[in-house]
Hints:
By secondary structure, this protein is an alpha/beta fold. It has a domain at 2-257: Amidase signature (AS) domain (Amidase signature (AS) enzymes). Helix content is 37%, strand content 13%. It has an eleven-stranded mixed β-sheet, sandwiched between helices. A hairpin with a 5-residue loop joins strand 10 (441-448) and strand 11. Helix 2 (23-36) runs antiparallel to helix 3 (48-63), helix 5 (160-167) runs parallel beside helix 6 and helix 9 (309-324) crosses helix 11.
Amino acid sequence: xxxxxxxxxxxxxxxxxxxxxxxxxxxxxxxxxxxxxxxxxxxxxxxxxxxxxxxxxxxxxxxxxxxxxxxxxxxxxxxxxxxxxxxxxxxxxxxxxxxxxxxxxxxxxxxxxxxxxxxxxxxxxxxxxxxxxxxxxxxxxxxxxxxxxxxxxxxxxxxxxxxxxxxxxxxxxxxxxxxxxxxxxxxxxxxxxxxxxxxxxxxxxxxxxxxxxxxxxxxxxxxxxxxxxxxxxxxxxxxxxxxxxxxxxxxxxxxxxxxxxxxxxxxxxxxxxxxxxxxxxxxxxxxxxxxxxxxxxxxxxxxxxxxxxxxxxxxxxxxxxxxxxxxxxxxxxxxxxxxxxxxxxxxxxxxxxxxxxxxxxxxxxxxxxxxxxxxxxxxxxxxxxxxxxxxxxxxxxxxxxxxxxxxxxxxxxxxxxxxxxxxxxxxxxxxxxxxxxxxxxxxxxxxxxxxxxxxxxxxxxxxxxxxxxxxxxxxxxxxxxxxxxxxx
Length: 488
């Protein structure tokens, strides 16, 4: 039964179609694996009874020839997606015990296609972090270990629970959200595939908001094809989200396996800063070589405003967060700490309910939006954001997609850099520009560091051209022959 957890989504669908096993058997295998790997702390809330009930219904649909795209596939849901009647915490004490009376559009889409929910997975509190160390429910452990020591490593963040669950085979796939790199960086750290779609491709309805102009849902899976299957199910126009893009959703799976002959691959010269790890550079060069061997053409491009992206993001995102998190006051839902007055209750609830990183970002956001500082910081950051997006637009006149590293380092140990927020923020230096421009970005594993840890490469595409990313990523995946964690 344990071998069932090592299948890809595509393999599992084929096996169930042939009658080799059922969704109930597949789900039971994953529930057993979850119990075995509880030490990873990947799940906040497990839903075994609901999972088995969903699997039973799925088997009946398959028997009746009514199978969806993800029929019977056990998935993990990042605990930022509202799930009707199931606790949704956003990794925060302030939402502990909150059971939404409605379902997020993305998860509703997954259930329509037959997916099974194993539970809600851990994340940095309100998706604010690059390590999964800011969660109220404790740090998630990366299933990978260094060869040189036995220290527990971070899975990346904020979708660290999603990445760890997929890598450790305690979920066949997982939902993630990406604001500045929160799908791509943990995918790189855990040796899996993760894609942040174009802003507007997936509905934000029912996702606990961090920074509304940046947040975007996306899939995390063990292969490029699996990610394409999941995105096909997750995406689509939603009238409940004003930023959701109308129009049909492509079948992303058709791009997997297509030729990339003649494809122009851009190499941003600004993404080779002084001091960049030689291992990261070597992996990047190897990725370019794989694409070139498959018939692609390499072109150098320039993104001159990249150097301002990190500073821009850490003004825009906290500003939006300070506004979004104002709704958590102890009045309507979640934690309530009694006080002597209404204001006192607000202060005590927020003091106990929010963690240090969330408080830090609320303070930064409130400051940059305050009278006297709005023009100096927030207005200027928005202008820079426009220039960053313009750089990408210019680059795409020369290239069809861009290839860059995903993160500047492999996974680091739990506890490292925790007291240095600036070092932590630098983890997203390669992913943030893509988010500011609203572009799709895909991370896939390209090899291992000298210490035996996964190294990820990032493909960046034109708006709503995820198909080209899947096409190129599949070619690189085939060339890399990356051995996933469970094979070690």
